[in-house]
Fold:
Amino acid sequence: MRTLIRTLVVAAGVALALARPQGFAPVRVVTTTEDLASLAREVGGDRVVVDALAKGYQDPHFVDAKPSFILLVSRADLLIVVGRELELGWLPPLINNSRNAKIQPGAAGYLDASQTVKILEIPTGQITRAMGDVHPSGNPHYWLDPDNGRRMAGAIRDKLSQLAPADAAFFAQRYADFDRRLGEAQKRWDATLAPYKGTKVVTYHRSWPNFMDRFGLQVIGYVEPKPGIPPSPSHTLDLIAEMKRLGVKIIVVEPYWSLKTPQSIASQTGSEVLVLAPSVGGTKEASDYIQLFEYDVKLLAASLKRATGK
Amino acid sequence: MRLVSRCLLVLVSAGAALSVVSPAAAQTAPPAAAGSTEAQQVRTELERLRKELEALRQQYDQRISSLEQRIEGLAGPHVTTVAPAPAAQAATPTTPVQNPPVTPPQDPAMPAPPPVAQTTAAGSKVFNPDIAVIANFVGIAGKNAMSTEPSLALREAEVSFQAAVDPYARADFFLAAGPEGVEIEEGFITFTSLPQRLQLKVGKLRAAFGKVNTLHAHAMPTADRPLVTENLVGGEEGISDSGLSVSRLIMNPWIFLEATGEVYSGNSEVFQSTERSHLSYVGRVRGYRDLTEGTNLDVGTSYAFGPTDLGPIMRDEFAPEFEDLSKRLIGVDATFRYRPLRSAIYKRFLARTELVWSRQDMPESPQAKAFGFYAMGEYQFARRWYVGGRFDQSQRVLDSSMRDTGGSLFFTFWPSEFSQIRTQYRRTNYAEGVRGNEVLFQFRFGIGAHAAHAF
Structure:
């Protein structure tokens, strides 16, 4: 009997040892958004396991700090965040309750992706909540510029190489490959949107400054009277007048906003409501970082063509 | 000096990056057999890289010397620069401090991003905690002979101070100023970096007994607290005491499971200790699971044990038999949430119930037993509008024959995340046969930076 037990224990031990292959432990990466997850996968390949918290079709400002997210963060080797107060309403409780020393702000496993990118709309002077939900350190929707995506991927490559130095060459090679593919795609996108440089558009929220800036489009107003403040009748009337005056024909909306006000503005100004994907996963076609731009550029170009006749 | 060492690090890493690039370039070149033209190209390429590295070196040398000059210039009592942040490391995610434009290590191929605008903050203010003030103003109209609540009152102004203490811990202070004066509602340190998925809190805390007991007044979905809380779990104050709280995540493949154990001095609205050795204890196990992407179930069971408050109450009566009596509370709670992710801004639903059993020792008689519960639901039907209802029932802690029941309907309007306007109709049938019919109005508003609430 004792021999049998001993045999079973040894067998179980051997099975456990075999179940965990030696020398290969992928870096567990948790990102707050799907854009960061896509970039982490581009750079990390099969040497990383990536989970994103917020979905691409969800407003990243308002995410529930669900305990299931605490579990993901508690197991992470690396936490990558958008930063610039985007996740202020939900990430701190997840980090505090994760019991994971590795990913606390300031620790090696915490990466704020906004530290190496181009940030727009950094407020100057005194800011108050009377201005709405102003982000004190600039607009956090910076990932919508492919050049920033490249910089973010570079930061992820450096961080992964720091955490898994043995795979540094692998990450560098994957980054170089991503950089090349992104560069090629960028030429295409620039060419597609080049004829429409300077065209004026309206967006719902201030989610698109980096995107519009990159492709030379001009945002002249917002459906929201102030960031995070729902549309008001007086502001909507002002916006309609302004759109008519400037001949604006496109209203860009994220998939998580109600289309009621944008559609009513569109019907009164003869413009078109265009639902673009603000993030990877925002729509099925935007399956990764490059596809996100493929989708948005294609839709926007078609809409611009209708609006300008070019 | 840190700046200098960081710059050196940048220099070294730039050098390392280039030295990695060179062999890679060599590897991609075709074999030598392809002819000397290619070899010549590789040589030219190497020469070019060498020159670039040299240029980079000179650039960084200049940077270092200029930074050294700046450091010397800054030496003084009031340093008005912001601490440089290494790539990716802000002091805390909640501190709205602008990081300075330290140029990160660059790919030679990548254009340098334009510098982020620099904001200068007085050095002494950089480490200030997040400060917020949240006011809770309640007005009551209608009749309730059992209630002494005033018609109009700023019931509480809660002042919070929150910040990281050091890399291992954070601290949260909540001071509540009300008509009775100022008191520490909570004030504790949380050790966030303990091994074994442990978390330790030390200080004055609202005990982890059920859901309502952990919530500050401004986080409640109603203007009041349920009858069961008023009758059995200490009302507005609840089980709030000085002590220690240890909790641990129990990892398993199925659900989020958290176990919490707490020890308190035994000095709250529920427990009153007359001796140092008479402590009170709270234990809780909480399970959570996502049912679908937009729905989840959150269940918990809690236990509290400690000296009854009868001893101190009866002390003036010289009734020693009331000392050394104990009280136990058992709680069960369940919450169901629905929030479709695609329209999370506009729609959500929450249903919650909490059941509490109380057992209290009595001198020379059987234990006093009591039971109470509430069940509530709240539905968000538009971006800023919520409607909800609650059913209440609870026996009195010392007399199970006395049972109060009640019900509430409430509407809440959120002008923004930072203010709420609520109206609540409340009907209460007290065991004495008295009936309360009231309308409550509530204004809640907050200024400053208040950390996000737990889920």
Summary: Residues 17-22 of chain A have pLDDT under 50 and may be disordered. The first strand of chain A starts at residue 27 and ends at 31.
